[in-house]
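DM from R.C. (forwarded with permission)

"hey, sorry to bug you on a friday — could you get me a structure for this? deadline for the figure draft is monday and I only need the backbone to look sensible"
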Amino acid sequence: MVPLVRALIAAHPHAAARLLVGDDRVSANPKLNNCVKGWAAAAHDWIVIADSNVLMPRDYIQRLLSARQLDCGLVCAPPIGARPANFWAALECAFLNTYQARWQYLADALGHGFAQGKTMLWRRADLEAAGGIRALGAELAEDAASTKVVRAQGLAVHLVDAPFAQPLGRRGLREVWRRQTRWARLRRASFPQLFAPEIVAGALPPLLAAALVATAGGWPVGGSGGARAGRWYGAGMALAQAAGWHLSPLYPAVAALRDVLLPCLWLDALVGTDFVWRGNAMSIAADDEPVLTAHVPAKW
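My reply, with the result:
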């Protein structure tokens, strides 16, 4: 990667680009530690912090800036899964798109937007007023800390009009599960009051309720449940189609599997504390000091 970046810099000498290398351990968050040097070296008032696995269209910055409003302290965009190359990658699409992005945009529409670390546009003065980029180390997840920093200033987090794609390629079930459990455990640690109702998210609670109503009314459970499941997953497919997100004939199967896994994911996050992030073993346990530990072998 370093030779590629250096080649791009050499090919565009008119661009004020620099490659910064180093390990500034200012927090337990390896991603935040990697961004500190870039924040300090940035020369402008507007700074974008973006993950390297998110695609940036030509109007990327313009779309971020256009999402700002008078009360805006931060502009973000959730990742949208794209280009899945196997079943498990399609499952990750179902998590990212018609579940997580759907709820995040609903929260934004209701005036309760929250940060997503994949893409964040900061006005330097807003974050500096809160103590600078090191203030994002107050939480294990920098996006959770960002949400709290912005709200503490009486400002709001807003989302771009349409999120940016994250190509997924091939995924394994274990890889997808570990990522989802990490995110769920971090949500539980940072926003427990919002994490709690996640147990009723997904299709299982309404489908079980419909089955109970059908049983009590003496109606055929299979036909009633099948009709409701068809409407539920049909709505998800309609959303993906309208938004231009990945949609395939596998969607009902992967979305159903996602919804079966959601309660398991919630229970795992409720009792679990440890996870691995970028090769670093970490913990959300209240009695654990949030520090980086030895690098975990690549098999993790």
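R.C.: lifesaver. The first helix runs from residue 2 to 11.
me: no worries. The domain at 44-283 is CATH 3.90.550 (Spore Coat Polysaccharide Biosynthesis Protein SpsA; Chain A).
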